[in-house]
Prior knowledge:
The chain is α/β, with parallel strands linked by helices. It has nine helices and seven strands.
Amino acid sequence: MHSTDLAQLPLRQRLKARAERVFGAWGVFAREFFKHPRMVGSIVPSSDRTIRKMLGPVDWQNVQLFVEYGPGVGTFCRAVLDRLPRNATYIAIDTNPDFIRYLRKTIPDSRFVAVHGSAADVEAIIAAHGFDHADYVLSGLPLSTLPDGVADAIAQGTYRALRPGGAFLVYQFTRFTNQLIRPYFDRVDRGFESWNVPPCYLFWGWKAGGESEQQLTYH
């Protein structure tokens, strides 16, 4: 955006644009954390080690649709796109319009679709984009702080949205996710990453029925 265009925007939008220009993704992430701490969860984006470990079990060659809940400023987005096949689709869903606006502005990849919506509506969202099921769903949403019933609705909807053999990949700062997704998924693998701020718990909830499904253990 040119300075002449910036000057014509309302004050609030000018401040947002300048913050993004000066501080980049970290500034946008920090700003939204202070505005919505219960929804963003952490003031610092996930570490590279967390990203690698979280995405480790994905069978990238056979991915057609990858979905993410709560992508924020795209910390995982770029890592996923680096691994995603050319003919695959990546749908990122977030309730925060500022994050969606930032992602659409900064990720010019034809495989990437940023959707302003709720993770609880994942089935309708993927159907609207021409898919019956997702291969993998990634989530960094702070599930333990969501309103009553919402986390359960997300877990159930995610299980239905996944293809047989697909997985729900979740990174959290509490063990709450284990008790949340275990009743709905056929197997849950767990891990932990200390090299993160704060350290986080990792979960892979598997839907039975896929030939590529395998037992995974991470420490």
